[in-house]
UniProtKB/TrEMBL annotation:
Native source species: Oligosphaera ethanolica
Signal peptide: none
InterPro entries cross-referenced by the UniProt entry: Capsule_synth_CapA (IPR019079), CW_Biosynth-Accessory (IPR052169), Metallo-depent_PP-like (IPR029052)
Short name of one Pfam family: PGA_cap
Protein name: Poly-gamma-glutamate synthesis protein (Capsule biosynthesis protein)
Capsule synthesis protein CapA domain residues: 21-257
Length: 414
């Protein structure tokens, strides 16, 4: 359980004199109004409230969820194509960290060249990258860093939406749990501390799915010292599995909306947390959550303070509790699936029988492709159809009021 006063949990006593702090931030995409502000020289001002926190880390990582390109080369896909001007790399300079995590569902949005240009620009500007590369082998390549005498290995994988690397095409490192388990096991033998960062899960769901929980626990059992998930655009809970930390979603760090809604302090889109791991040669000795929020006009990112901060920690403890009870967690996920609109894509499909024989890439089929091949979407649709088969959809929906309550940051109103 997270200490509601300081967001910390002590895992164990340190076993070696070599120690380090790793700081990880969630989804970051300085687009739209943020892009304008960064190009106008305001990057340092946006992040100024966090500079003291950044300065305490020995190794900092951030999920950088965009290609840096001015090329007008959007790929054909289901969902939005996201990009940021190359000049927004100044945002990362203001952040001042070390590693850009690139395994995500947007790094390939403007094609292979834009993805490779992004990797090159990041490295030319002094940042390390992991999770994407010129082909599948390069994308899967771990990043190994030695910090304060501790050899740290980082692996970064993303669920199979669009922009994944193939044996002969650049892109993100795709999630492949059986293969990834072997990769983790191999890397853990080479380093003191193996960190696995994943990009996936059901967007806006305050609780991880049973599949995600079982997968993360398997990665720990394979040799990961810590596992961190990113992608859901809302914070999710944490657990210790066999004495090793799993973070189920950091939520957004800085990701301005395309069409900002009226200011709603309970909207989790604008809330997330960074996680700081204190490590030694045996892995994590402590974990600290650092909740943050950014303004709808992308003016600033700041840490939560006072009652909002304490409320956030209590909230994390609340949403972490069901993770320890798989039956309870499954019940919440069945409710999420039962109330989802994704299965309704089959009612009025965008595809016709003729589309299956049309020349590729056929955009009419890509919505279907995303439903079937993205692990999070597939799990949701499969669960929905099983509930229909068993006549339990109405039963599953009984948890909807509770799930809706967990989806609002009510503690921000205090």
């Amino acid at each position: 359980m997270i200490n509601p006063l300081n967001g910390r949990v002590t895992i164990r006593e340190s076993q070696s004199s070599e120690q380090a702090d790793i700081l990880i931030a969630g989804d970051c995409c300085p687009r739209l109004i943020a892009e304008e502000r960064v190009l106008d020289g305001q990057a340092h001002d946006i992040l100024a409230p966090l500079h003291d926190i950044f300065a305490t880390a020995d190794l900092s990582l951030i999920q950088f969820e965009t290609p840096l390109t001015s090329d007008d080369t959007p790929i054909t896909k289901s969902g939005p194509n996201i990009r940021c001007h190359p000049g927004t790399i100044d945002f990362l300079h203001a952040w001042g960290g070390d590693v850009a995590l690139l395994a995500n569902n947007h790094i390939g949005d403007f094609g292979p060249k834009a993805a490779m240009d992004t990797i090159a620009q990041l490295r030319d500007n002094g940042f390390h990258t992991v999770g994407a590369g010129e082909n599948l082998a390069a994308a899967y390549q771990p990043l190994i860093r030695e910090i304060n005498g501790i050899r740290i290995g980082i692996l970064n994988f993303a669920e199979n939406e669009f922009g994944s690397a193939t044996p002969d095409r650049p892109g993100a490192a795709p999630l492949s749990p059986a293969l990834n388990t072997r990769q983790i096991s191999d890397l853990a033998k080479e380093v003191d501390c193996c960190l696995v960062v994943l990009h996936g899960g059901n967007e806006h769901n305050p609780l991880p799915s049973p599949r995600v929980v079982e997968m993360c626990r398997t990665f720990i059992d394979a040799g990961a010292a810590m596992v961190v998930n990113i992608h859901t655009h809302c914070p999710q809970g944490t657990e210790l599995w066999h004495g090793k930390p799993i973070v189920y979603s950091l939520g957004n760090f800085f990701f301005p909306e395309r069409a900002p809604k009226a200011d709603d302090p309970t909207n989790f889109w604008y809330l997330g947390y960074m996680v700081r791991f204190s490590i030694d040669k045996g892995g994590a000795t402590a974990m600290e959550l650092i909740p943050t929020t950014f303004t709808t006009d992308a003016d600033t990112v700041r840490p939560l303070a006072g009652k909002q901060r304490e409320g956030f920690f209590n909230y994390i403890n609340t949403i972490s509790a069901p993770i320890a009870d798989m039956q309870e967690l499954r019940g919440f996920f069945e409710c999420w699936a039962a109330s989802s609109g994704y299965p309704r894509a089959f009612i009025k499909p965008s595809w016709t029988p003729e589309d299956f024989d049309a020349p590729a890439p056929n955009p009419n089929l890509l919505g279907l492709r995303n439903l079937l091949t993205c692990e999070a979407h597939n799990e949701l649709v499969t669960t929905y159809l099983r509930l229909v088969e068993e006549g339990r959809r109405a039963e599953a929906l009984a948890r909807k009021p509770q799930l809706d309550q967990l989806g609002k940051a009510s503690f921000m109103l205090g």
